[in-house]
Amino acid sequence: MELIPHILSIALFVPFVAWGVYTLRLRYKYQMEFRPTMEALTLAGLVVFYAFELALLRTASRPMSPYFIFAVLGLFTSGVALYGPMLTSLASQVLVDQMMPAERSQTHEPNYASAEACESAGDYAGAVREYKAVARVFPRDAVAMIRIADNLAKQDQLALAVPWFESGLECLDSPEKNLGVTNRLAEMYAYHFDRKNDAVRVLRTYLKRFPESSYAESVRRRIEGLERAAGTA
Q: How many domains does the chain divide into?
């Protein structure tokens, strides 16, 4: 019975680490951030996790014993390392909302002027930064996400561009506009990364969302071609 608290503690610790590593990977490898709502939910879940872990530690050892103290220090140190950037991100956004509520409330439409100026000047890295600023304020804005991906692709950072294309597709409700991005992403998966299964997945997602589209038949033919190519590879 004494092993049960230890087993439960480890079982809770695994998703705690896995989710933290995943969020850091998105942030630093793909330069993506979660929406504020998801960040808040994650941090709320973190509070619940700590409550359970501390209760289990008290059951498994005497409070203030060396084991208890080092275990608590380890938990909070790992929490800061894994989730500190997310907490900072959410806190900064809340602070901006509190300091400039009027300006934020009057912002009803995305303003791409600064980003487009960077694009015109060939400053694609600057354009990415400006579009990301728009995406933070308008997290469902497909235009900002797709232009981030496009400007990353112009810098040959295709691996960074892919998740932005994926996110943008989720927010594109026009069959015509969605198809253009879908085809581009499928081509990247199939020919730049040799991931034909992902290319087929993207195309099938288009058919699932727009089954009555006039482009559906051509998408099906493209899927068949990719599947044949994957089968003969």
A: 2
Domain that holds residue 227: 113-232
The pLDDT confidence band at residue 106, using thresholds 50, 70 and 90, is: very low
Rg of the chain taking only CA atoms, in angstroms: 23
pLDDT at 171 over 50: yes
| CATH code assigned at 129 | 1.25.40.10
Cα–Cα separations (whole angstroms), residue 190 to 106, 158, 181, 183, 223: 43, 13, 14, 10, 11
Q: Look up residue 38 and give its two tokens.
A: 């998801």
CB-count burial class (<10 Å; 0-12, 13-18, 19+) for 165 = buried
pLDDT at 102 over 50: no
pLDDT confidence bin for 28, thresholds 50/70/90: confident
Looking at residue 15, what DSSP letter applies?
H
Beta strands of 53-92 (E only): which ranges?
none
- If asked whether residues 175 and 227 sit together in one domain, one would say yes
Q: What is the rounded distance in angstroms from the CA atom of residue 104 to the CA atom of residue 97? A: 7
Is residue 118 domain-shared with residue 89, that is, in the same domain?
Answer: no
Residue 214: per-residue pLDDT: 92
The answer on pLDDT for 27 being more than 70 is yes
